[in-house]
Records
---
Amino acid sequence: MKKTCNFIALIAGLFSSFSALSFPIAEQVTEGFKVIVNTNSNIIATYQGNSATCSNDLYLMLKENGTPGDDGDFSNDLFIFNNHGSQLGSQVNLGQFPVGTELIFRIFVNSSSSLYCNGDSFYTGPSGRNPDDHTHARVQNDWQPNEALVSFEDLYDGIPDGFDYNDLSFSFANVEGERVEKPEIAIKGGYFNFSTLSGNLPENQDCQLERDYGRAMFDELNGILYICGPFGWISK
Ligand SMILES: [Ca+2]
Ligand SMILES: [Ca+2]
C-alpha cells in the first residue's frame, strides 16, 4: 500500500512539475507594463494556460459605450477566459481599436477556491491600480513574432507563494507592452545643490521619520555626503 502511495505521489509530483513548465510566463522586468494597440487589425486573445490554485476570470475593461477604459462598472466589461474553465489555445476576438489605445485587462479572483483567493480584482499596468499597490501582470513584447504575452499573479501582496505570475497567461498579436515611465527630475545644464554643513554633523532630528529617508546633506569642509535612511544618517 505504501509503495502504491509513493508511486501515486511520484506521478502527481511529475505531473505538477510538467504542468508548471508546460505553459509560458512572460519574462521578468515587464511587470507593470501597459498593453497598447499598435495596428488597426482585430485583436485576438489566445489562452496560454496557468498553474493557479485560484479560479480567475479575465476581462477586458470597457466603458458603458463599449470603448476600452475603466468606468468603475465591472458589469459592462468583456469576459474573455477563465483559467480553469477555458480550453488551452482557445481564442476570443476583442475587436478593433484605434492605434495607441491602452487595453486594460483585469482578473477577478473567485473567492471559493482557497483561503488565499480573496475575491480581489487585479489589473495590467502600474501598481497603483491594484488594491495591494503591487504590480500583478507582466507584458512581454515579441514573445512570438508580433505577438505579446501577458501573465497575471492572483495573490494579494503575493501571500503566501510570492509573485511568480503563473496564474493566467494569454497572448495576442497587434499589441505591444509599454513601460510605464516613473517621474524624474532632470536639471539639464544645471545642478542640484545640497545644503552644506561646514564641518558639522547633520542633526539627528532631521532623520527620524520615514518621510525623511533619502534626504541628503554635504559637508563641504571634509568632503562627506550624508544620506538619511532607516538607521539614521549614513555617510560616504
Ligand atoms: Ca467597465
Ligand atoms: Ca502565483
---
Amino acid sequence: MSLSTETRRKDALALLSLLYVKLGDSPIDCTAFDCADVAYAAIQKTSWEELVSEGLLAKRGNSLYFFTAKGWSEALFRCGNPSGPELNERLGKLSKVLKDSVKGRGDSVLVRLDQVTIDSGLSPGWVFNAIDARLICIFGRNDAGWVEGARGRLIEVPRDFGLMEIDIFADLRAENLKLAETVERMEELYADYRCSFCSSPLISRTPWEHEYGTEEFSEYACGMTIGAPHGDAPCTKDPKFPKFVDYVLDAGIDGDVWRCYATAARAQSPASLVQLYPTYGQTEDEARESMRKRCADRAKH
Ligand SMILES: [Zn+2]
C-alpha cells in the first residue's frame, strides 16, 4: 500500500523530531542513528530515505544515519524552539565570545573550537553544530565558519562578525535583507525576466500551440518579444532594431483620405522584424509624415 504524500511528510517530520531530541547537545558528526533500533520501529523505512534525499540526513553503510548541518538547523527550526529564550541565550553567549575575538582587529581571526567552548561555557557538541550549520548566519548576521580542512577544530571569525542586532526576530532589517536576497535569487533564476538589452521587465508570458507542441511567447516593456508566433520583434536598443530608412513607404488614396503603408525595403531588412500599422492623412504628405512619427514613436518604446 502506498502512503499519501501528506502521511509520508508527517512521518518524515516525526522522525526528524525524534532524532533531534535523541541528539541533544551531541555533535552531529559523531552521532549515528541506527534505523534498525527499536526506538524507530513505528517510523516508516522510507522516511529515512526521504530525509536523505532532502539533504537533511547522510547515510553510512546499510543502516546508519547522521544529521547533516542543514538537517540539524532544519530540525532546530521545526522541532526546537527557535524564538525561545534558551536558544537566544546560547546564541548570545556564542556571539559574544566570537565577537570579542575580533574586537580591535583589522582582519579576520582564527580561534580554536575548544577555546570557544571554554570561553562561552556552552556544550562543545552544540557549539560544533552551531558553527557547522552556520546558525548565526541563518539568523541574519555575518557568521564565523570552519577554516578549510579544519572542520571541528579551527574557526575563522570575519572582521565584521555579528554587525547586526542580537534580537533578529524583531529586526526589520533582517526581513528586508531576506527579501532583497529573494529578489536577487528570483532574478538569477529567471534571467529572462528582463530584456537582455535594456533591462525592461517582462510584462507577459503566454503559451501558444503549434503542430509540434507548445511555445511560450514573452513580451517585454520595451516591445521586445521572444517566441512570438510570426517572428520576434527586437528591443529598441538592439542594433537590429529598424530605422526609418529601412522602410519603403507606399501612399495611396483610400476613399477620401490618404493611406500610407510601410514595408521592408528588402527581404532581409531589419524592417521586416517590426511591423508598422498604416497611417492616414488628408494629403499624401500628411499620411507619410504620420508614418514617420509612428516609426519614431515605436523606436522610443
Ligand atoms: Zn529591451
